[in-house]
Amino acid sequence: MAKFMDVHRGMQGITADQLMEAHRADLAVEAEESVHFERAWADPESGVVYCLSEAPSADAVQRVHERAGHRADEVHPVPLQV
Fold first, then answer.
1. In-domain check, residue 25
2. Residue 55 is part of a domain; what is its CATH number?
3. CA–CA separation, 36 vs 2, rounded Å?
4. What is the pTM of this model?
């Protein structure tokens, strides 16, 4: 499966608990789209949240986020890593 990094904007003031709640919402439905969310990061000041996942496609990542209630603004493939 491929790796993807997605970006959510407009989440100023997000707390660690809110980030965990959003991540859990993704985990609750990810298997239905053959996606696995590995990690999430947030900057409460800028309101930007990043999520790293393994998935069959960017569309599958977006479908999980939409179902979990927080559509991504961008989904980028990550074809290379070290």
1. yes
2. 3.30.70.3090
3. 10
4. 0.94
